[in-house]
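Extended Data, panel c. Modelled sequence:
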Amino acid sequence: MEVLVAEKCGFCRGVTDAITLAKETLKEKGEVYSLGPIIHNADVVNELAKEGLETVSSIDDIKSATILIRSHGATLEEIQKIKSKGLDITDATCILVKRIQKICQKLNEDGYKVVMLGDREHPEVKAIVGFATDVQVIGGLEDLDTLTGRGKVGILCQTTQSPGFFGKMVGEIVKRGFSELKIINTLCREAIKRQDSAVQLCRKVDVMFVLGGLHSANTIKLAELCKKHNNQTFHLQNWDELDINTVSGKKLAGVTAGASTPDRVINEFVDKLRAI
């Protein structure tokens, strides 16, 4: 089978840095806890667990040792709680997320109501809005009716959302008559490159595969965008999840992957697909 791979796919800098920092900390400290999965990829999380990185959901579960702030970041309250317990901190927060946290905090201090566009349940979004007191998360058009008032609004966006979503939501908010709007483009450039590359590829192929964690926001967004242009799009974590029937009668397949998907997962999938 002929297989084409998207020009931009796989690990981004933030993910690479987080994994490298985790491994260095494990070698130095030995006992390390991650507050939530370091990235949204089960294979990587399991590998690091074998090396000693224990994932916990609450700071209360940690009595001593070092705690790793995952790539998605942590709220200001969580960071203060970690420090109050006297725990060592290794911060693997993506540099873009850290920048947005500072912007969110500054908007709040300057009297803006912070509007965060994105998934309210995503850890990145929680880590960012946790730096403001007057904040509202808007996940879609259905949430706009909850956005009221006529004061100053500062608009941010989850890094892995698409430019189309960001533009559409900002356009709707503009219509609501706020006295002042400050709009900061907080989309990840690497995520946008991956989205553009995936869409270009999926238009050319008979079947499209998007590889990555089922809870990875950027991978989910890739799959959603590809599905709009090619209904034969499938979101899989790895080769083991492939249903061979999906490639029956197909001649040309496309493969892309989320920013938290290791190269080895991509390479294994592509090699085995080409062997069919």
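The chain has a mean pLDDT of 94. This feature is highlighted in the accompanying rendering.
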